[in-house]
Hints:
This protein is an alpha/beta fold and 236 residues long. It has helices at residues 3-25, 44-52, 63-72, 91-95, 107-120, 146-153, 178-194, 212-217, 227-230; strands at 34-38, 57-60, 79-82, 100-104, 124-129, 159-165, 203-205, 222-225. Helix content is 41%, strand content 16%. It has an eight-stranded parallel sheet. The longest helix is centred in the N-terminal third of the chain and has 23 residues, at 3-25.
Amino acid sequence: MSQIQSDILHNIEVIQSRIRxxxxxxxxxxxxxxxxxxxxxxxxxxxxxxxxxxxxxxGENKVQEFASKADELSDLDYERHFIGHLQSNxxxxxxxxxxxxxxxxxxxxxxxLDKRLxxxxxxxxxxxxVNTSFEESKFGLAPxxxxxxxxxxRNVKALNIIGLMTIGLFADTAEEARPSYKLxxxxxxxxxxxxxxxxxxxxxxxxxxxxLEVAIEEGATMIRVGSAVFGPRIYS
Length: 236
C-alpha cells in the first residue's frame, strides 16, 4: 500500500470514528449515517484508492469533473451523487452518470430533469436543497418554499424524492451551524407528517468535517467530507 493510500484510509477511519462516537452519544446506530466522500478537485487515482477499499459513496460538485471522473472510474462499482449547483443546460451530461442529485432547488430544473428522464425512460432519486442558513451566497430553496415545492415535485413521475440537503452556516464554531441543521430536520418531519403514507424524507444530507457531530445530533443521515480525507483541494 502506498503512503498516499495509507493516509487516505487513515483519514477516512478518523472521520468514521467521529461518526460512530457522535451516533453513540445521540443513541443512534452508526449504520444510520453514511459518509459521502466529496471529491471536488481530487485526482481520480486517489478516488480509486478509496473506492477499492470499500468507500463507495462519492459526491462531485462540478459537471465536467463529474463526467470525466465517471468515465475514468467506469470499471468500478460505486454510487455517484451530484452535490453541486446544477444548471438546467447541464442536466443532459449529469444524467449520464448520476445515481442521485442532491441539489434540486427550482421548478425549471425539475422540468428539464423530467423531460430528459422521460426520454430515457428512467426514474432518478433526488434530494431537495434548502438554504437553512439564510446566506445569500448559497443556493437552495428558502425554507418556507419547500412544502409547496415538494407538492409540485411529487407529481413528477421521473423524480423520486428521498431527502433534503443543506450546507450549514459558515461560521467559526460548529455550534453556530446547529440551527440550520435543526431547521432541515424539522422541515423533513413536517413534510413526512403531511404525507404519512409516503415517508418522502428519509435522508438528511448535512454536515461536514468541521461540524459533523452537531449535524448527527440534529438528525443527519449523510455527512459530506472532502479535504479532511483527501487533503487540501488543489485548484488549477
